[in-house]
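Thread title: Can someone regenerate the structure for this chain?

I was given the following input by a collaborator and told the matching structure tokens would be attached. They weren't. Posting the sequence so someone can regenerate them.
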Amino acid sequence: MPEIKTLMVTFQNDLQPHEIALFRGAIGNLMRDGSVLFHNHIGDQLRYAYPMIQYKIKGGKAIIVCVNEGADAIYQLLSKGPLQFRIGAREEAFTVATFQQESFVVRLTNRPKLYDLNNWLALNESNYRSFNNLRTNEERVALLERILVNNILDFAKGAGWRIDEQIQVQILEVQKQYPLKHKGVPLLAFNLTFAANVVLPSFIGLGKATSSGHGTVRIKNLKTKNYG
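Best answer:
Regenerated them for you:
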């Protein structure tokens, strides 16, 4: 059971959801000669691994969530001094408001934990067709649960955590299901609550496009009963 280091950098600057990709792109351009973790590109090729630097919004403010080596790499950005970015049509100086660093032991647990998962892109082109072909809501939820287990395993692999036991996930409520486009591709996004027998850090991402604010996990601070 490894200890995961997380670091959340919160900026004073407001950011809208549709601007997260612009924010990520601006920092990626600035850090082209820095760590690959800022933009996940090696030359013209993508780095196909869990993103250790993720760009998000919290309380309407721009934030960067860093995991493990991402928490070390972020100082390459901050050491550049005043950060001046173009976000769409506006030029803006980004100022750090707070740092929040934590060490977190990820592990399986006998008592399921409750989480919210927002703006989750669960489906690729293949399983999107499978999802639409299922006849009942129960079958669709079961498919989403299997995908969510795989997403957690992807995070675990990226964090250096080998899981030999079975992860159990139960989706308790889908609050919202809505279409959106990611890189011009029509997809479905989900806001939901799930229970799992795994302890996860809050604000990490799961699923597709986690580096651009999708699939953000938040721990629900509720006393839970034993689901499943």
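The longest strand covers residues 185-199.
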